[in-house]
Amino acid sequence: MQLLKWLDENFEKTICVFLMSAMTSIIFLQFVMRRVFNNSLVWSEELARYMFIWLIYIGIAYGAKLKRHIKVEILVNTLPNKMQPYLLLLGEVIFFGFAVFIIYSSYGIILRQMALGQNSPALGIPMAAVYAAPTVGFFLTSIRQVQVIKDNVADILWGTGGENRG
Question: What is the DSSP string of 32-74?
Answer without folding.
Answer: HHHHTSS---SSHHHHHHHHHHHHHHHHHHHHHHTT-S---HH
